[in-house]
Amino acid sequence: MRRTKILATVGPATDPPGRLEAVLRAGADALRLNFSHGADKDHRRSLARIRRAATAVGKEVAIVADLPGPKIRLGTLAAGSVQLAAGERWAIDPDRTPGDAHRVGLESPSFDDLARPGDPVLLGDGSVELEVTAVRPRRIEVRVVNGGLVRSQAGAFFPRARLKAAAFGPADRRAAKVALESGVDYLALSFVKDATDLTTARRWLDRRANGHDVQLIAKIERAEALASIDGILDSADAIMVARGDLG
């Protein structure tokens, strides 16, 4: 019996007819749905498709609802994307004006105290790395360390920042409600800081699961989570390590 399990992500690549069935036949044991993107109706539709695909291939498959968490994202780029080269200078600010090759806005619960000179900033899957060169009022100036293509709404990760936002906030509760209605097996909490985040989610879940055994996955994406890893391990049912965000 194969002990290692395969988790596949549901997205645009699995939209064509028969693609989900092919993924399950190829060996996927669980399917992950990212609630950071799309509307509630899209998630409900995807969850229903997963159930139909599992029935079609006669396979039990676990469903993981990956909750958004307090994710920090870049704003929109006027051209949809920008190519950054090593050594170039760029700036990040809270302005919602579409960005370009010189600057970009940032969608964040808080802009103050995000970074200090010398701090790294990782974009997207972590392949694009920036270094903070200066912090000014409503403006973070950066130098490109590792270049690449940056798209609108790309995730922006400040490894040394201490986020004040909870890992299980209003957006996560709304997404979790949709997930529970569709009978998911796991809820994955993004940007968990410590065991308190899991305790909060567990209490909410216990009042709404209606006897369904839904388990909690703690996503380890921040250095501060590593400092509290023992408590997180005691409180979570499973751990997911986000290599791109950890750097």
UniProtKB/TrEMBL annotation:
First-level EC class: transferase
Keyword Metal-binding included in the entry's annotation: yes
Pathway the protein acts in: Carbohydrate degradation; glycolysis; pyruvate from D-glyceraldehyde 3-phosphate: step 5/5
Cited InterPro entries: Pyr_Knase, Pyrv/PenolPyrv_kinase-like_dom, Pyrv_kinase-like_dom_sf, Pyrv_Knase-like_insert_dom_sf, Pyrv_Knase_AS, Pyrv_Knase_brl, Pyrv_Knase_insert_dom_sf
An annotated Gene Ontology molecular function: ATP binding
Keyword entries, A-Z: ATP-binding, Glycolysis, Kinase, Magnesium, Metal-binding, Nucleotide-binding, Pyruvate, Transferase
Residues covered by the Pyruvate kinase barrel domain: 1-247
EC number: 2.7.1.40
Name of the protein described by the UniProt record: pyruvate kinase
Organism listed in the record: mine drainage metagenome
